[in-house]
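Async update (no meeting this week)

Hi team, since we skipped the sync, here's where things stand on the single-chain job. The sequence we agreed to prioritize is pasted below, unchanged from the tracker. I ran it this morning and attached the output directly underneath so nobody has to dig for it. Comments welcome in thread, and please keep replies under the output.
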Amino acid sequence: MWCRGIRGATVVTSNTREAILEAAGELLQKMVEANKVDKETIASVIFTTTPDLDAEFPAAAARQRHGWTDVPLLGMQEMKVPGALQRCLRVLIMFNTDKRLDDIVHVYLPGTEVLRQQDFGR
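Output:
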């Protein structure tokens, strides 16, 4: 068994509490479903947001919507890079699994395709 990471990203519609919680909850759900993640296998989750998202902590969605009250959650702010994608929320779920690296499904929701290009140099 290894500790593997699942990357995910979405664009939040606006800098409001409701929009951040909805976007984070949807992204987490898609990441968990795509990789069949059981809460008990999660080592930790890191959330990052661009500096223009500060109305709520995205980790609140993990606690409220998914019941991850015992999972270590950490929120951070992305660097302010000129020309970077705005209102972007990223998630890194670290979980214990027997899956190979190439079996992990990373989830990039509409509007974040440019991030996949940056991550993989395409």
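Quick observations from my side:
Helices lie at 17-35, 59-66, 113-120.
The chain has a mean pLDDT of 93.
Reply here if anything looks off.
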